[in-house]
Amino acid sequence: EAGVAQSPRYKIIEKRQSVAFWCNPISGHATLYWYQQILGQGPKLLIQFQNNGVVDDSQLPKDRFSAERLKGVDSTLKIQPAKLEDSAVYLCASSRSGDEQYFGPGTRLTVT
Amino acid sequence: KQEVTQIPAALSVPEGENLVLNCSFTDSAIYNLQWFRQDPGKGLTSLLLIQSSQREQTSGRLNASLDKSSGRSTLYIAASQPGDSATYLCAVPLVDGYGQNFVFGPGTRLSVLP
Predict the structure, then answer these.
(1) Interface subset of B 55-74, CB within 8 angstroms of A
(2) Which pLDDT score is estimated for B98?
(3) Residue B96 CB contacts under 8 Å (≥ 6 apart), including other chains
(4) Phi, psi of A66 (to 5 degrees)
(5) Which residues between 7 and 66 in chain A have a beta carbon less than 8 angstroms from any beta carbon of chain B?
(6) For the segment B7-22, what is each residue's pLDDT rounded down to a tens digit?
(7) Which of A31, A38, A58 should be substituted to probe chain B, the one whose Cβ sees the most B Cβ atoms within 10 Å?
């Protein structure tokens, strides 16, 4: 089966600009996660969807980050406006039952 | 609040050695524990998933154990190879007031020298 797809793979923007990331989970996986991974650290959960509903967004900086999952399949994560400290790899993962997670390749964001 | 730590932070060994990576977590109310591998610039690849009712899981040269009561898991790699060089992370999900929250450790960076 196809894995989790993410795009773009790399993005460089200036601070205060906006950026959006896209994720297509494994077919049939109801749960979708967005993580932020800063260099040298483990991933930090930003938001978790179950189908198209939000389960947990307690660590999402809602003043600048937003995410949606239309029709319970694809998801987009947006940052507006970006700050220097948003430079990180943004990982998308999916799970069939909220159990074992499968990760995409990630999007490396550099904010200058 | 769940905290996950991993020891050592980095490890360098000659090819062929057996090695152990450690993961500790503070809250034992977990459903399972998952070990991942991350290559530079890549996403995470799932290695092993241990359910809370299990004590260990094996896949090839990898063996992971789980001791919920002590808040520990170990990943044992037998006969290490240069291709095993990567960062290894453990993650635990726990149910809080919002739903399932996954917490990752910072990882152990492994280098296997030929």
Answers:
(1) none
(2) 46
(3) none
(4) -145, 155
(5) 33, 35, 40-45, 48, 50, 55-56, 58
(6) 999 999 999 999 999 9
(7) A58
